[in-house]
Fold each of these.
Amino acid sequence: MSIRPATPDDLGGIMALERASFPTDAWSEPMMREELAAEHTRYYVDELAGRVVGYAGLRALPGSRDADVQTIAVAEASRGRGRGRALLTTLLEDAAGRRVREVFLDVRADNPVAQALYASEGFAELGRRPGYYQPDDVDAVVMRLDLEAWAAARTPDPADAGACT
């Protein structure tokens, strides 16, 4: 996997994935252009053979203790290979570097694969927003991650290093 910060030159590849991944409620090209240029938002792309096969964005205001996952999308042909998890991990590491404590996201209630990915990383459901995703009238599942607990779970305990037999 080749994950790197997105640039304005990635807009075409991102928009192709956006439209394919979210056919009924894709962001417009001007909206995505603004997202890529926004001061407090960072986007990353995952490339394969020079093609954007995934992207993800995180918004965190300076000094804020919380951040929001704006979006994550992976090309259908590249799903099931850990690319979504790698993008999510990149966002969470970025958030940790900004001293964020909590990360929030919304996910479609009809997307159990994404919900399972988020839950496996420690996100917990906070509630639902009925009919949030339009025009499909699909609920949003609001999820929260304690980033300090996530980071602690990923850091090996030094005491375990000497426990080899």
Note: The radius of gyration is 17 Å.
Amino acid sequence: MSGELWTWTATQMAAAIQARQVSSVECVESCIGRIEAVNPSVNAIVDPLYDEARRGAEAADKALALGEGVGPLHGVPATIKINIDYAGRPTTNGVAQFLERIPAADAPLVRKWREAGAVILGRTNVPAMSFGLYTNNKLYGRTYNPWDRDVGPGGSSGGAAVSVATGMVPLAHGNDSGGSIRYPAYCCGVFGMRPTFGRVPHYSSTAPSESAIMSQLAVCNGPFARSVDDLRIALNAMSGHDPRDPWSSFAPIPEKAAFEPCRVAVLAELPGVKSDPEVVAAVRQAAGWLADAGYEVEECAPPHYAEASVLRDKLLIHELRIHSLPMIEASAPPEEVNEARALLAATPTVDFEEFRTGLARRTTILREWLAFMQTYPIVLTPTTWRKPQPLGLYDNPVTMTPEEVLELSPLHVVPLLGLPTLAAPTGLVDGVPMGVQLMGSLYQEERVFAAGQVLERHCLGMMPTDPVSSR
């Protein structure tokens, strides 16, 4: 291995630390130096934790010297999204009104990453209330895409994706109920994994009340990284049951597995939905790479694709209108939630009977998807039907048509179904990242990772990148 330590992957760092070729202190100091050099240009890490991280790195090195057992992320730097409980630090969710929400204990995934040995260097930026595909708020300011300052970095985990893309850390945590891992990964040219629902436990002691049912079913936590191997160890380290999350799975953490190439359903176009030619080209390019690796690719639509997207919006957005809009209006200035308001206005109100039958229909659609995936274990789609969008798209009030919402369908289908989905880069188009999604059946993360590594071989050398203003 060569290059400065901050350029290394998490897998490389962990192996070198455990072999005592480098120390955790050296890795942490290298990443802190990188943060100080580039974070002022991109504003991704908004709550640095340097003193705590240095103590953690020293403790990690001492444990190795004493011959104590170590976890898979021993001494490896990482970041946590600021909408997740981190003991002793406010769970602001990007709004000043929540500065008093200081948890006494870590969220389950933070605890699990710590137990695996990760050293947390800081917490990353979100849009106000973590509602939106752009990362900007009055409390911390705007996060910038390191590839092009005129293109949004994505949201709501925009700070997390940028922290990985620029080499500030090799691993970052994000969460996703409508694309908040996958869209920032797409915009920033990194890998992001939204796992099977329940794979990673989720709980917030600072939330004022229990989330409504569709919100519980939609949200997933997962990692960002610059390699698929890093995603694997990061995801497995944060997975497993926690009694604070009744939905969390007891399923064993899978070992890295070798999967033979399989059949892949390719969705390159969706009738009635506008798509950018760069997006369609990226999907077909990725399909070609998979075919070259022995996968049998076929352009065909999974069952009820557009319906699944519309159903997710009808259930989740309506639920947010009832349960979350009052808190949004009380906590975030109107100009910070223009996107949320546009989505709410574009989504019809439903009554109880429609909501009940919609939840039942969700089961039917998922059943038919699982049957479809017996034939096509991987589904390849765009991340959205549009290339990464301009910065500041929602700085002013906007309206959205149902057709425009459907352009986000690849982001919205996944939370309805709870299927593991990898956002993977495919390269640059006019200097801006382009990418795709790979979906697998329930608990088939390893099969998805295997296909993702085929795409990864064609995008080596993209990261980490210097912010464009620093080039």
Note: The chain has one domain: 5-470.
